[in-house]
Amino acid sequence: MTHAIVQHKVGGPEVLQWEEIHVPDPEPTQARVRHTAIGVNFIDVYHRMGKYPIPEFPITIGMEAAGVVEAVGNDVTNVAVGDRVVYATRPIGAYSEARVIDASRLVAIPDGIADQAAATLMLKGMTSAYLLTRTHVVKSGDVVLVHAAAGGMGLYLCQWAKNMGAIVIGTVSTPEKAALARAHGCDHVIDYTSEDFTAGVLEITDGRGCSVVYDGVGQATFAGSLGALATLGHMVSFGNASGSVTSIEMADLAAKSLTLSRPTLFHYTDTAPELNALATAVFSAIKDGDLTPEVRQVYALKDAALAHTDLQARATTGATILLP
Ligand SMILES: NC(=O)c1ccc[n+]([C@@H]2O[C@H](COP(=O)([O-])OP(=O)(O)OC[C@H]3O[C@@H](n4cnc5c(N)ncnc54)[C@H](OP(=O)(O)O)[C@@H]3O)[C@@H](O)[C@H]2O)c1
After folding, report:
1. Residue whose CA is at the smallest distance from ligand 1 atom 10
2. What is the pTM assigned to this prediction?
3. How far apart are the CA of 213 and the centre of ligand 1, in A?
């Protein structure tokens, strides 16, 4: 008997129900994966709420998981039964004990990386990789502002940027999160719930501003982030934890010749070679000591609703996983 988190309508965490499901045999290009650890990401909240469209009901959310291949279709050559694999991909469906998935989206987990750690690396790790090396190429000495620095994305972005030689400024909402962000590479931490972070960044940089802002918070921080940027700075808006940014004044960019990007992981991993290159970048960063995977919250898969409640209440730090 296989179970999954299933929802029949959009809504709050309570719509996430534990139900029995049927997992089919794989089609020729698919593999069936028995999950061992499932990554929880803010995008799951957007799907659950219907902020990002859901194709049909009933549906299972989730985009990231590690597991073991238990069957493959006839045309599959990149993975075999028994392989340890991980993925972060569309379509949604990771909050399940097992699922079928296009085999070309699977990445082999290197020896030495546990499944639970791997389940934090494909969405948050690969996103950190492309944000720091492709959307904006961080250089040694750059001043980088990372919002929600103690969050899942935040802890990975801060430590990796620091190891690239950047001066990292992080924003957080509590003293405990400030300590955690410092321990993960932040040179300076600003509590953006009690301080004006724009003024804080300008003070730290002697009025120059930062080179790049990595902003996954969205509505609450967008305008202040533009103010914190140096002339020719780069605003990288990659998420909406506080709500979506719905309008942009071009004049606000023109004021300092700013660049604005709104990137999404899945456009950087469209093809198998792109996916494998980004996954390799993450595994290399771990090997080189630039990135240390870390699981900070573990919930049973059937308690996914509780994980969502905590994530939305800003009660989690770093990466969260669900165990089937
Ligand atoms: N574009 C992409 O490719 C991509 C990929 C991965 C993730 N993302 C985005 O990155 C962001 C972070 O994702 P994550 O999974 O790592 O989540 P997370 O950072 O672990 O959790 C969100 C954090 O945002 C902060 N926050 C500020 N205002 C908030 C509000 N009103 N409600 C909830 N949280 C608020 C909180 O930190 P404080 O308490 O310190 O403020 C909270 O811990 C999300 O926007 C996500 O969509 C984008």
Report:
1. 216
2. 0.98
3. 14
